[in-house]
Please model this.
Amino acid sequence: MAKIRHVAFMINDTPKLRDFYQKGFGFEQCYESASGAIMVMDGTFNLALLKIREGESEVVGTHRADGGESDQTPGINHFGFVVDSVDEILERVGSDLKHGQNPQDGRPAEMRIEDPWGNRFDLSARGFFGREEVRLPAVRQVVVQVDRPNEVADFYKEKLELKEEGRASDGSVYLGDGLIHMALVQEGLTNKHGIQYIGIQIDDWDATADRLREMGQPLTVPKDGGADLPLRDPEGNLLVLSQRGWDS
Model:
């Protein structure tokens, strides 16, 4: 089974956002590139903060010729899976889907694939620097807006062997790998198609609020401790915080 272990953002100020995730949630830096990209992780899940590149560059395959993302739009960009064999997954998805090798410049991703609905995801058999260390706070959910949740769910169940965890009356389908959850929703919290936001499970509302306030990021602790709380990071990316989490 593939494991959901990576999300990437296109960022203007990568050090500032690194500090936000380190100080606010205790994430640790695990990678920095010459191009200004920084990766942080919670022990298991990897967040790539990719520096937006100036100027134009030819797109070759799935990336720019200079190694950057083909889509430099600020915000959340793609997600990724740790797999046992990249070649096996490529054989499953078939050659018709757009795919190509990631630039091999020290980054952990090995192969980029675009699913039939235009969602981009990475594959890596060597991992995204995670240790499979289960602790909190940590990323525990990835939310993707799709028009046909049933069809998309079938693809990820068949090709990546994610397990179905549940369905909602609004048509949403919930998949998972045993730890991280993928929600496929028709109506998201933003107007962005595709991957919309991540969910971070916290261990203590008051402690989290104190850490964020120290950085000038006010957070009102919900009266209902089991409620989910939306939050924008310093670059405007949507996060949803939850103490309860998203286990079925």
The helical segments are 14-25, 86-93, 149-159, 205-214.
